[in-house]
Amino acid sequence: MGWHQKQLLLPSFRRGFHLITPQVLRAVPELGSIRIGLLHIFIQHTSASLSINENADPDVPVDLESALNALVPEGFPFVHTCEGPDDMPAHVKSALLGSSLTIPITDGRPALGTWQGIYLCEHRNHGGQRSLILTLHGEI
């Protein structure tokens, strides 16, 4: 197969952790023909991030958001404040969680664990549409 790359535009989400596994998989149907490979996901923003975490219990994303807010409070005396009180904390959270994921592909499926899912972590109150670059490489 070689290399395949697509852009996935996600709608605006409220602040928090949002399971996007289905949207990602729909965007790369070629994944189903890969015997062994890698899917790399990159977010083109500095105030949102990506994470792999538990996808079964709806309390998990709530707790993740609460923990990040406690670690990086909006009341911290940031110097960069021109884009609002949620902007610089969003940059710090994004730096902590990261802007990309690499997921192994095995027999046409992402080799995620039983309870793992792909999350968009929206760190702004009104972050807007988010763009992901999905790069697939593998052998048929």
Give descriptors for this structure.
140 residues; alpha+beta; Jelly Rolls; 3 helices; 22% helix
Explained architecture:
The protein has 140 residues and is an alpha+beta fold. The chain contains 3 helices and 8 strands. The protein is elongated, with a radius of gyration of 16 Å. The model has no long low-confidence stretch (mean pLDDT 96). The strands form 2 sheets. Strands 1-8-3-5-6 form a 5-stranded antiparallel β-sheet, with helices on one face. It has a 3-stranded antiparallel β-sheet with strand order 2-7-4, sandwiched between helices. It has one domain (2-139): Jelly Rolls (Sandwich), CATH 2.60.120.460.
Can you tell me the number of structural domains?
1
Shape: elongated
- Radius of gyration, CA atoms, in whole angstroms: 16 Å
Mean pLDDT across every amino acid position: 96
Q: Topology, please?
A:
Layout: E1 2-10, E2 16-19, H1 21-27, E3 36-43, E4 48-54, H2 59-71, H3 87-97, E5 100-106, E6 109-110, E7 116-122, E8 130-139
Antiparallel strand pairs: 1-8, 2-7, 3-5, 3-8, 4-7, 5-6
Describe the structure in brief.
With 140 residues, the chain is of the alpha+beta class. 22% of the residues lie in helices and 39% in strands. The chain contains three helices and eight strands.
